[in-house]
Structures are given as C-alpha cells and as structure tokens.
C-alpha cells in the first residue's frame, strides 16, 4: 500500500456557480497538493509509507506535527472533494435520510445544526458528519485535524466534510462564510455520503 494523490473527480468549473473554478483550481492544485507533498516528505523512509491513513490517525499523537497537519490536509480534502458533485444538492434518501431524521429531528434541522457548526467554527477548520458508536453526530475540528485522530474531542468515522478554511471560499464570498455554507448544500453529493454511511456502519457492525 502506498499513498497517492487522487485526481479531482470533476473539472474545476463543475461546481459553478456555487464554488468558482479559480477557487477549485488553487485549492486542489496548490493547497491540497502541498499538503500531500509535505506529508510524503514527512513519512519518507519510515513505516508510515505503507501504513493506512486511518491507522496513522489512530496514533497521531505519537507522530510529529508535520505528519498530523499534512496527513490531515491530505485526507480531509479527499473526503471534501468526494462529498461534492455537479449533480449534487437536494436531500438525502434511504437509510441515511432515516438516520438523519432519527438523530436530528428532520433533514432541515440537521442542515441548520450543521450550518451553525460551520459558521461558528473559530478560525480555520472542518465540519463533519460522523458515525460514532453507530449513531450520527456533528462535530468540528481545527486546522487539518479530523475525527479519526486520537487528539480530537469527538472521534468517529467521517462521512461528510465541509472545509471552512478561508481559501475554500474567499474568492467568491470574501468573509461571508454563511453564504458559502448555504451555497455548498447545492453541490453535496448525497449518494457518496450514503455510501460512506453504509461503509461506516459495516466497519462497526
């Protein structure tokens, strides 16, 4: 097993008008690529070159900051990209929708709670929908931490990720994070999130 830098699953302009092409190009080819390159440099010559990211994150407190920060940035962006699509938007259905309604009351209430977590995340970070002990939960992390790491308050299997670093939205939205979050719902790939949910449940069955 080795760590590879995946292709973006769509073109830079695919998510317009909600996320502009220039933001996508810079975010993917500069920010994400830099996290990956620095992560590879940080683990070069060590057993981590062949260790799955999930196993690295389980013991991230034992590794240098370069592994934590850049490994997180590498993984977090992969999930973020894959949770979006030009064919996204709308609402989830099936088992995921049932679970969201069970845990949050309704799809609308879930979206409101998730959006509030995103808007209220101080500084840079990510907001997540996770599976924690078989149940859904919303959590946020600072910088490039994620819920798979042993250093965060709420651990779980991430199934949906929202990047709230300013570089994710500043070209189009400047400091108006709430507008970015509102627009982002139009590109959420609920099919991918549903698949992530099914995998997370199976892993802990």
Automatic annotation (TrEMBL):
UniProt-listed PANTHER family: 37S RIBOSOMAL PROTEIN S26, MITOCHONDRIAL (PTHR43595), SMALL RIBOSOMAL SUBUNIT PROTEIN MS42 (PTHR43595:SF2)
InterPro entries: Mn/Fe_SOD, Mn/Fe_SOD_BS, Mn/Fe_SOD_C, Mn/Fe_SOD_N, Mn/Fe_SOD_N_sf, SOD_C_sf
Substrates-to-products reaction catalysed: 2 superoxide + 2 H(+) = H2O2 + O2
The Manganese/iron superoxide dismutase C-terminal domain, residue ranges: 92-195
Function: Destroys radicals which are normally produced within the cells and which are toxic to biological systems.
Domain Manganese/iron superoxide dismutase N-terminal: from-to ranges: 3-85
Protein name: Superoxide dismutase
Family listed: Belongs to the iron/manganese superoxide dismutase family.
């Amino acid at each position: 097993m080795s760590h590879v830098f995946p292709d973006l699953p769509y073109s830079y302009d695919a998510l317009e008008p909600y996320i502009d092409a220039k933001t996508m190009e810079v975010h993917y080819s500069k920010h994400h690529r830099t996290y990956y390159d620095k992560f590879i440099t940080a683990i070069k010559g060590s057993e981590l070159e062949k260790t799955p990211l999930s196993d690295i994150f389980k013991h991230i407190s034992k590794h240098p900051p370069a592994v934590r920060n850049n490994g997180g940035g590498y993984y977090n962006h992969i999930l973020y990209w894959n949770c979006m699509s030009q064919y996204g938007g709308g609402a989830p259905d099936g088992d995921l929708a049932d679970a969201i309604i069970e845990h949050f009351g309704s799809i609308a209430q879930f979206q409101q709670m998730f959006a509030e977590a995103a808007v209220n995340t101080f500084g840079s970070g990510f907001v997540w929908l996770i599976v924690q002990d078989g149940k859904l939960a919303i959590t946020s992390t600072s910088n490039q931490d994620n819920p798979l790491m042993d250093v965060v308050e709420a651990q779980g299997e991430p199934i949906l990720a929202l990047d709230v670093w300013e570089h994710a939205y500043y070209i189009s939205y400047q400091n108006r994070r709430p507008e970015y979050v509102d627009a982002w719902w139009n590109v959420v790939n609920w099919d991918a999130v549903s698949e992530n949910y099914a995998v997370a449940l199976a892993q802990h069955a």
